Amino acid sequence: MQWSLILIPLMGQLCFIKCYMYEYKYIKRKMNWTEAQKYCRENHSDLATVTNMTDVKRLNQTAKQRLSWQRPAWIGLKKHTNRERTWHWSLPRLSVSKTKTHWRWGEPNNDNNDGSDLCVLLMKNLTWIDDPCNKEQHFICYNESNVSQKFHLIENPLNWTNAQRYCRENHTDLISGLQQLNQLNQSWNEDMKKKLEEVSYVFIGLFSDVWAWSDESSFSLRNWDPQSDRGNGQHECAVLTDNGMWNTHDCSEQIPFICYEDHVILINESRTWEEALYYCRHHHHDLVTITNLDEQRWVQEKTKKATTPYVWTGLRYTCTLGFWFWVSDEVVRYKNWASPGTVNECDMSGAMETGGEHKWVKKHDEEKFNFFCSK
């Protein structure tokens, strides 16, 4: 049955401050990292996970809101020495393709043989080599807001962590992702190409480490203090420090910590879209709404545990008015459709792919999938 907007009562809450899919909780009690992890999992969702630079600011604000806040404070990042190295882009929204890379033949090879070659240099022929992060090199920043000049070659050599910090403070981030690297190759003028040939190597935003979040998410953001050992020392747990950045710390130390409370839940039951809608409204709040790329990444991370090829969201198409809408009353501004040009039909709702690029697809209401509820 095709519903109109009138037939679906709108359940979205009005937020006079920014609403988030998760919130941070500063816990004043002092525990070691393992005890803090257990406490967060039992009383909230987990130790704090940080997905983007907005979260970095929110994490600091959460701590400062407490009148007697103390630092350092545990977050959910921990070093796993027996873990296989995972490659990440500095720009948090991007994932690393396992099949499409630009490694020079024989790379990555960790020439130092001690695990310190965790950062990547772009050569003048645009191939990649791994190199120690503590070496000082030229680097390329990416500027998201500058249409005319997106890429900036910084000729003041810095180590990788300081280069990342410089780019985040003065531009957007270190150049990240194959799309940006391809744009760099196409857009750079002859003068800039000559400069790149002269310096031979430049840092890009590709790095590898053995650090992992407590909730097993794959988010790549790292906000290490430039003075830290970036995890190459003996300490294997991460803390938020007085300057708002991260450092390593003895995991057995008794200190405060920060948990996060998740407002999105994956329901591993197969239901029609209408059944999913009423389940969420009866047991939680509503089917989930996604309004930007960061929220998309937070939701798609949860599809790892889905048991169906698609997962229902709160997207719905109305034949009566001829447009898509969120049942939470949010306007559909951010879009992530797999096939934007597909003809819209009645009795269709929006689901997210559980694999691939996690695009949105238009599925018939009577199909049965897992679904996301907002809490």
UniProtKB/TrEMBL annotation:
Which top-level group of life is the source organism from? Answer: Eukaryota
Q: Which PANTHER family match?
A: C-TYPE LECTIN DOMAIN FAMILY 20 MEMBER A-RELATED (PTHR45784), C-TYPE LECTIN DOMAIN FAMILY 4 MEMBER K-LIKE-RELATED (PTHR45784:SF3)
What is the name attached to this protein's record?
C-type lectin domain-containing protein
| InterPro entries membership | C-type_lectin-like, C-type_lectin-like/link_sf, CTDL_fold
Q: Name one Pfam family in it.
A: Lectin_C
Q: Cross-referenced Gene3D superfamilies, in alphabetical order?
A: Mannose-Binding Protein A, subunit A
Cite the C-type lectin domain residue spans from the record.
18-142, 151-260, 260-374
